[in-house]
Amino acid sequence: MNNNKIELLAPAGSFDTLKTAVNAGADAIYIGGSMFSARASATNFDNIQITEAIDYSHCRNVKIYVAINTLIKDEELKECIDYISFLNDIGADAIIVQDIGLVHLIRKIFPKLPLHFSTQSTISSTEDINALKNFDIQRVVLPREITIDEISQISKNCNLEIEAFIHGALCVSYSGKCLFSALNGGRSGNRGACAQVCRKKYLLEVDGKIINDKLSEYVLSPKDLNTSNSIDKIIQSGVTSLKIEGRMKRKEYIHVCVKSYRQLLDEYMKYGKISKQNIEDANYNLNRVFNRSFTNGYILNSQGSNIINNSYQKPIGQVIGQVIEYNKKNKKLKIKLSENVQKGDGLDIGENIGRIIKSDGKISDTASKNEIIYLDFIKEIKKGQTIHRTYDYAYEKKLEEEQKIIKKLPISSKIILKLNDTPTMTLKDDNIHIVQNIDFKIESSKNSPISDETIIKQISKTDTFPFEIKNLEIEKSENIFIPVKILNELRRKALEQLYSEKINSFKRNHVNYNIDEFLIEKNNNCDKIKSDLSVFVYITSENQLDYIKPYINNIQIIISSDINLYKKIYEFYPDKAVYQLPSIIKQNDFINISNLKASLNAPRIMFSSYSFIKDKSAYIANYHMNIYNSLSHKYYNSQNIYTVASLENIFANSDEYKYLNDKSKIIIPVYIYPHLMLSEFCPHKDELGKCIYDYKCKLPNTAIINEQGDRFLFEKFLNCKTSIIYEKPYFLNKSQIIKYIEQGYTNFMIELKNENKKSVDTIFSNII
């Protein structure tokens, strides 16, 4: 038996779905409001609905976490803080956050409001967690790429709650590190509007040749996560919360997922193991609802082709049979069944099942596995084609009935009925104890005294209240009379009082604040001149050291992620050399990174992980830190760290920093090859995670091409992680750069890949 409380956390994109999750057995629900949520396309909750949702859940001892896990614009900060104030008042159990500037502001105004760092923050190690200690966060939501071994290391070395995904959709990129949608789809995943570019069709090119066909076009589309077979191992890793993905899913999906994992979790917590039969039952049900086929995920060490379903990106349903033949004349489809079917079932061939014609010609509403049947069908279907059921009429009806079961909180009650006294009733749950009486004097009655049976019958009726009286103690005088309507009124008043005290026990006192004290608008007076400009240049070859030499007086920093090239830069320009660390550093990577830094004698670093914020060598926070607003820049700049402006700000939406007076440490990218995705996925790994080219890496010669003809390249970094970049640079023209100069920005970044001397001269001429 396991005594550690493990939370089952479910998603809800609407109030109906939330009720479904609560009634199916979720311990906590995460939701999004109408603003600032990473699932902007979900129905989501307005403020009235959020209040109702929190009260509904709290009365059943279920927690509510509200996602504000997008990046916040300067112009949204005031509205966002007012929204958080509202959530604080009504008793949200925690806020899920990503934006570091917003977190810094929240802690100044609401120091005791529980905060969970979103998976969008890509917190991947104990070092990341330790660097954020001063924010007093309660929980981190780990990336889906973290393995159970890494979770175990993290949970043993930190005191925070650990939340891990166990079921649902996967992203091919690390969440929060994907710029593909924003820079190529026009919709920001970090702003809750992901364009699902990973679910699109791509050609896969290796050595200049296309190696995939129409049956494998979804090169980047992951399968869905399903850990039900090994949920015991995840529990043993030290997680606090088991998270189901799916705020945009139907309530039937939520019901099945929550119920399935609830049964598995309860069995493990009670017996320390899970029976094979219950695992099979869970998988049977999970396979009946939305999925793109399943993977155990990175969390359980699946890799390569076990992660991606390149054949299709939408659910195709359950296989129910195969076409034997199609009779054009009679318009009849002959099928050999592999599952039971019935009238009303939906099929992937474009029709619902109407009448079912058996082999003997009889008409039926049902047919059984292994039978041969005929269906009326006007469209020809090829012999041998597999048929999938996309809507299971009987199963959906079963789910409808299951969802009618409403969860009620068990409570204890005592009723005291004493002669010549007023009736008194007490109700209590684990935390609240109320006493209620009613203005009525109990009389004696020798002819028709009230019985215990009548009292139990009337007091046990909780009607629409979210409570169920499990233990009722009766203390009464002999031979007394009390009208049933008085008992009913006493019960109603007691339940109303318990309900009121229950929901109010979660409310918080309002915090008064003046937001203008924290958000001071910038002074637009600017007297910067062009001679003050500094260039931060990233190079990839030794030749480029010669190309940039004419501009060396204007170059403040030269950056490289290649250790040998960095050493060469340091040899010639020690005061300008900066080493760029990998953009993703997981728990198991830190020993190598520490050794690397030591070998370079503590270099100044450009970083993309929280773990280096307090590092003495931290010099530049790179764009994958998602530094989106003035407050985020100020947080790093106050620690003497330069910050690269968000590429979404620069190349997608041109948002202005309203509260940034000191721009001396802001770097504006003007010519760059953004890493659009950072991933554990490599298209050249097999289902065991082994390289199909015998580790003679083909990634430098690999590209994907979208339906518009755009070509994207793969690059390999730390421990075979991959990044995807557009083959062409993103750049600002001269007039755009001048606009930034006029606004007072003096630091500009250039990234060179394969540019020749002439191209380098042209790039620099736009700045200096």
TrEMBL record:
<protein>
    <submittedName>
        <fullName>Peptidase, U32 family</fullName>
        <ecNumber>3.4.-.-</ecNumber>
    </submittedName>
</protein>
<dbReference type="InterPro" id="IPR020988">
    <property type="entry name" value="Pept_U32_collagenase"/>
</dbReference>
<dbReference type="Pfam" id="PF01136">
    <property type="entry name" value="Peptidase_U32"/>
</dbReference>
<keyword id="KW-0378">Hydrolase</keyword>
<dbReference type="InterPro" id="IPR051454">
    <property type="entry name" value="RNA/ubiquinone_mod_enzymes"/>
</dbReference>
<dbReference type="GO" id="GO:0016787">
    <property type="term" value="F:hydrolase activity"/>
</dbReference>
<feature type="domain" description="Peptidase U32 collagenase">
    <location>
        <begin position="388"/>
        <end position="500"/>
    </location>
</feature>
<dbReference type="InterPro" id="IPR001539">
    <property type="entry name" value="Peptidase_U32"/>
</dbReference>
<dbReference type="Pfam" id="PF12392">
    <property type="entry name" value="DUF3656"/>
</dbReference>
